[in-house]
Structure of Dynein axonemal intermediate chain 7:
Amino acid sequence: MSGSKKKKITKADRLKQILEEEEKRQKEEEEARVKYEKEEMERLEIQRIENEKLQKLEAKDLERRNEELEELYLLEACFPEAEKLKRDNRFLSQWKHYIECDGSPDPSIAQEINTFITLWKEETNETLEEVIEKSKLVLNLIEKLKLILLETPPYDLQGKNIIQYQESVLELQELLHLKFNRATEILLRQASTLADLDSGNMEKVIQDENVTLYIWANLKKNPRHRSIRFSETQTGFEIPRILATSDIALRLLHTHYDHVTPLSPVLTPSQEHISTVTDFVKEEVKSVQTAVSKDLQEENKQENESNSVHEEETKAEGQGDVEEQMCPVQEEPEATKYEMEMKLLSETVSAAQELLLENASEKPYFLEENEVDLCQFTTLGGVYHLDILELPPQCKPMKGWMIVEILKEGLQKYTYPPETTEDLEAENVFPPIEVTLEVHENVIFFENPMVARWDAEGKQWKTDGISNVSYKSEERLITFNLETFCPVTLIQDAHINMPYQSWELRPLDVNKVLLTITTVFTELQIQIKENLCMLASIKVNNKNHSSILEEKWMTPVSFIIALKKAGLNIFPTGHSHLYVVINYKHPSVEVKAYRQMALLSSAFAFCWSKWNTACESKKTVFQVREHLLKEEPIRNPNWTLLMFSGDRAQSLKINESSDAFSEALKEETEFHSTLYHMVKDFASQEAMRAVRRSNCQFVDSVCHMLLSTRLLSYS
């Protein structure tokens, strides 16, 4: 046989091989252990060095903390100064109103507004045109009262004043609606003289900036005339046969305002907040009184010493000395009084700002079935008051006179369907009425609006009794079936634009910034200057959208109200967190961040960071960069990533494109107690000069807008 046989491995060879492998494995393990220990020692050494470095930086931060906070306190004096200016402006506007003597009442003075209401009640036989004209003054008074409640800091509002203003608002609203009813009755008495030649029925449309009124009187009672369309509009009704043959009138009063929804509760501080501010005031008063008494004692001591030395001098010279010595004593209390006033204002402003960010723990009331949750939804486009009215007796000509029977009970509503009926097929006899309404042109709906009806008994908006709702967005027409006529409104989710996708705040000019907020549906650009705000532009679904609010400067509170009325709600309430998934940040941290961002906004741009959601609730992360006005727009600007906890600010080592979040400190940077001193490390002298020259009203307005939008929690 050819070929060699394979050599067999002996037991000794196998044992030797095993020993070699074991020796090799032990050697590798030893090398790995040594390597690991070396790496671990190096890591620990690096960590030790880093810890020592951090400890030194923390010690340095702690050492200069008081100095930095004192400088920040001086800079934040702009907030009480702005509040003092607002107070002065409120008093000045009251004085201007008083000296103008234009006949309109001051709504904040109970006697004047009550006299106005009483005198207007006594006026009778006003036409619809006269009531609409008078309504402009009434709506202005209501608006002023609501602004007083919203603009006055909670700590300056007394409970009795809140009740007084709210009662005045309700009285004016009720009286205005009563006047519309009386004027409608006067018009309907003359329906036969205003009848259309073709149909034989009366039709009238009155349009104004605040109301649109549609009235149709059924004079012919033609059973075939069941489709009602008001001329030159798409608004109308499809009425059942039983109404087409009845002595009725249909009225649609579209008020572009909402006087039906109950007034929102006024934001008031809790007893804990009040006691905190009160304690602070007591401490300040005590400290100031102590300081003043010490100064007075020092002055008296000096005066006594001076008198003992010069007791041989003449009486006249002695009197002159006393007068000279008394001057600084009289001046001192004035200075300390102003200082105490500003400290008190500073504390109340801070407390009021924190109050704006308080989250409610639960919903304010229990919801019934089909009731609209007014914390979740908002009414838009005003209220459509739909009424079926009994046609009053008509005017009759007689020997050159017009004779009319005036009913003592006044204008009466026609009950449809009847409260009791023996007809088993009442649904066929009294079917729902089809209603077609034109949606207000100045309101934006991001989704198809829902229709709600007013339940007068329960004082709430409800969604039952409404069916077959269809909405044509391009024509801005909504059609639905209504079981019975009553006030209806259109509602939209108040939080449809929350949370935000991104935001940016950047300077435009001296004391002027642009705030851009991007949501799922829209991009809003808001300009802020001095004590005014303006909607600069709006995009809906990435397309430019024109709005009546563009290029109109308003105070921050008026601006917020106007945006909400237009359907552009980017202003969370204390209940919003119950309906939106938010990135909760502690209110005290948010307030400090917004105040210091506002202080720096003259020369620095800020924008959102995706890492803000990764850090805990007592820390915020955002991007910042210097932005001087002379600079050209940069396509890819270099942003610095900052983390701020309210008590400490630091630059982060990571950036927006990093893979994971880390709180590691950026190389060659330090800790600081404020944002102001943090950005000062890398800012130019020109930028810091611009910050220090900022107008106090401008800083206050920027801060108010940041507090109202809550960018750090809702993006």
Notes: Residues 307-331 have pLDDT under 50 and may be disordered. The two ends are 87 Å apart (CA to CA).
